[in-house]
Design a protein that fits this description.
It contains seven helices and no strands. By secondary structure, the chain is an all-alpha fold.
Amino acid sequence: MERLVLRRVVLLGTPLALALLEIFHPERPSSASEAVEQGGWFMWFHFIQLPLIGLIALAVYLLTDGLEGRVVSVSRWAIGVFAVFFSAYDAAAGIGTGYALRNARGLSAGAQEAIYEAVKDMPVLSLIFGLSIVGTGAWVVALIAAAMALRRAGAPRGPFILLILAGVFLMGGHPGWYAGLRMLLPGHRVA
């Protein structure tokens, strides 16, 4: 009974928690001073998100628990690649960028600008972004393979739909392909 409850928490709670968290993903700042001000939240946001990435990978794995076949194997290998590469990306780009910006608070405007210039493109236009590309590709493969396995097994669509929504929000925050949705939220602007 406890295992069933824990399974449901992971399958339903993780995508919901991740989707809610992603609504508050820090926006791309327009200036060094703005970046320095949000640096702390940027760092902590990605610290919070890191275990959720592992749990969302576990949720995909649990969706195919008890199933066998080639597509199940593909999904499981791909979700492992996602967990490793996307977590590495989030740690390097998200936590690293936030940490650098947070520590620039007491520095002169010129020093803040130099740190901002050094890290501003790290999450999007750097070698580190390659980790995100590999992780995102693996996420897509894992979900498609899991969907194929689940449909073949006649499973309901509910948990899988929640996972896809969480995945859209997760990938949307990196670097922002759900910006249109965020424009609808009060107080948000798209950089």
